[in-house]
Amino acid sequence: MQRAIPVLCAIAAALLAGCGAGSGGGAATSRTRATAPHGAAQRAAARPRPRAVPVLIPPADAPARSVHVPVLTYHRVAPLSAVGQLDLKVDPANFAAELAAIHAAGYHTIYQAQLFDALYKGAPLPPKAIIISVDDGYVDDVRTMLPDLERWHMVATFFVITGRMTEPGFVSADQIRELDRAGMDVGDHTEHHLDLPELTSSEQRTEIAGSRQVLQRVLGHPVYYFAYPFGAFDAAVVQAVHAAGFTLAYSTAGGTTESTAAPLTMPRVHVGRSETPGGLVALLGSQ
Ligand SMILES: [Zn+2]
Asked: CA-to-CA distance for 172 and 130, rounded, in angstroms?
């Protein structure tokens, strides 16, 4: 049941994309070509530099260590009428209020690299450290969430679907770079958001390793973090994620303890539509 709901969401999103195919990404590309006649080199020069990202590869003799870092999971921040499964949409006013409540309660959003350093190097974390993660790469990421996060000087991790970069309603390659250049973490959520345990090993490689290559080309730097579509994985999928070069990967299993014992199946805390700002703070305090 838990997995059936996001499946419906993905189907609805795919239908939306199908309805509008060819209108969004293609038009934008044409406009870019029409207004930038000076060639690829000059366009590249005008583009902000890639972020310098640290290498996040665990040492072979990694010590056993756990840290308490709640990783919140959002999907859409959009009105009720927007496409998508109901509980995966948070109203924009409610999202803004939740950030304000988290800030007022003294929580600090951290980068994936900070979690990595805390796990593998024993590096200190700020008080009440949390990670805000956002799945599926809807255009809400840049239109709604990014301005709200910047207002509170917060960071988040956006797990994007690389096969949807040209579909209307989802972040484009330029918008993914915009998130990255704004100081947000961008992670991988596969190429087509399929149920990974159901795929052949070859298909898994395309969805996982292939998607990582695409995202790294978009960003211009390595990508080390991954989120399983529908939270679905098995031993073979985890091995494929490891082989692809990811070192931090997230499921949808509930929990707030991240550990070097299971860095590729880390838990998260789902934030649904019915959550309130006060309820979210109380939830974090009870974990
Ligand atoms: Zn997803």
From this structure: 27
